[in-house]
Specification:
The protein has 7 helices and 5 strands. The protein has 177 residues and is α/β, with parallel strands linked by helices. The two termini are 24 Å apart. Bound molecules: 5-O-phosphono-beta-D-ribofuranose.
Length: 177
């Protein structure tokens, strides 16, 4: 969904094929009403376009960049090299692939940091961005606290039901969200 507010987070990915794995980031940012921009920019296929985008990101008002890529996954590291904004990496892994994207991102040499999430962890990438943005935004901070409180409540409720019904009945019952 397009938004007219100035984007605070850039969500970039190396390929159209990464879009499904990155959707968790956009959906999570939407839930917190954080405007974001979404781009397909490749460190390999469109390197100049990527550099241009990242170098101008801070001046355009972005605070965080979330970068998702699979394979040799240079996208997040190259992005971090072109900006001083915090960069959150999402290593993309398909069922038929190994862990090369994760390894490539967690092994950044000292000097240029990446906050690397779990494989396909785009939701956590967005939540991490929310935590950073909330440092200077009391309303967002309150929203995040409420979000966490709901997690605590639903976790507590799941346990309460388990205590009431027993584990066998819980196991065979349809799972909620
Ligand atoms: C990476 O190579 C992309 O981030 C993607 O995860 C992977 C495969 O890209 P496609 O061949 O599907 O375009 O650069």
């Amino acid at each position: 969904m397009a938004t007219s507010a100035a984007p605070k987070v850039g969500v970039i990915m190396g390929s159209r094929s990464d879009l499904d794995m990155m959707a968790g980031a956009m959906e999570t940012l939407q839930k917190f009403e954080i405007p974001c921009e979404v781009r397909i920019l490749s460190a390999h296929r469109t390197p100049d376009l990527l550099a241009e985008y990242v170098k101008s990101a801070k001046d355009r008002g972005l605070s965080v960049i979330i970068a998702g890529a699979g394979g040799s996954a240079h996208l997040a590291g190259v992005t971090a090299a072109h900006t001083t904004l915090p960069v959150v990496s999402v290593p993309i892994r398909r069922d038929n692939q190994g862990h090369e994207a994760l390894w490539s991102n967690i092994m950044m040499p000292p000097g240029v940091p990446l906050a690397t999430m779990p494989e396909n962890g785009s939701t956590n990438a967005a939540l991490f961005a929310v935590r950073m943005l909330a440092l200077n935004d009391p309303d967002l901070s309150q929203k995040y606290d409420e979000f966490r409180q709901k997690q605590v409540e639903s976790g507590t409720e799941v346990d309460r039901q388990l205590q009431d019904d027993g584990w066998e009945a819980t196991l065979s019952a349809p799972r909620g969200l």
